[in-house]
Design a protein that fits this description.
Layout lengths: L10 H13 L7 E2 L5 E3 L4 E6 L2 E4 L10 H12 L4 E3 L4 H6 L2 E6 L3 E5 L1 E2 L2 E2 L7 H14 L10 E5 L12 E5 L2
Parallel strand pairs: 4-5
Antiparallel strand pairs: 1-2, 3-4, 3-6, 6-7, 8-9, 10-11
Length: 173
C-alpha cells in the first residue's frame, strides 16, 4: 500500500525500520522508495538544504503528503527560501548542507548525522533553525499567521445560561 494513504498498516514499515536502525545504533531510519530514492522517515517527511535552498522528495516518491510538509513548504516561500520537489538520491544526504525531518509529532527535527557521517559541524544548521523558529512561532501562536491559517474554534455553551462564546485560534499545521 502506498504511503500516500494514511493507514495504520503503513506505519508497520516505519516501525520495523526504526527497530532495525536502533539495533544498529541509530535513532531513526530514512526510508527509500521502491526505486531506491529517498522517501521519508518513519512518520516524518525529509528535507535537505543544498546551496541555501530546500529539497524534498516529490509526492510520487512514496511519501505521505503531510500537512506539516505543506506548512514547511509555505513557510519556506514566506522566508524567501528556494524549494525543489524532486527525486533525491541517497548519496545526496551525505553532501547536503543540512537535513531535517518534519511531522506532526516531530515538528522540525534536525538530523546531524547519517550513517555515522556527521553533517556540517554536527549541530542544526542556520536554515533548519530558521524553519524551526518560524514553525514554532506559527503553531504556538507567537507570531502572525497568513490569512486562512487560523480557524476560529468556539467553546460549548457550558456554565450559566447565555454564557458568552469564547474565541480561540487554532493553527493549521
Amino acid at each position: 500500500m502506498s504511503p500516500r494513504v494514511k493507514a495504520s498498516a503503513n506505519y508497520l514499515n516505519g516501525r520495523v525500520a526504526t527497530v532495525d536502525a536502533r539495533l544498529k545504533g541509530f535513532d531513526l531510519p530514512i526510508l527509500l522508495s521502491e526505486h531506491g530514492k529517498v522517501s521519508e522517515g518513519p512518520g516524518q517527511n525529509v528535507f535537505l538544504v543544498r546551496n541555501g535552498s530546500l529539497v524534498t522528495p516529490r509526492r510520487t516518491d512514496a511519501i505521505l503528503e503531510g500537512v506539516t510538509r505543506d506548512t514547511i513548504m509555505r513557510l519556506a516561500a514566506q522566508l524567501e527560501l528556494g524549494l525543489e520537489e524532486r527525486a533525491v538520491d541517497p548519496t545526496e544526504l551525505l553532501v547536503a548542507d543540512e537535513v531535517f525531518f518534519v511531522g506532526t509529532l516531530a515538528e522540525v527535527l534536525p538530523v546531524t548525522e547519517i550513517d555515522n557521517y556527521r553533517l556540517g559541524d554536527g549541530h542544526p544548521g542556520p536554515i533548519t533553525r530558521r524553519i524551526q523558529s518560524a514553525y514554532d512561532s506559527l503553531v504556538r501562536g507567537a507570531g502572525g499567521a497568513p490569512a486562512g491559517w487560523h480557524t476560529p474554534v468556539y467553546a460549548g455553551p457550558g456554565g450559566a445560561a447565555g454564557a458568552q462564546r469564547r474565541h480561540r485560534s487554532v493553527a493549521r499545521t
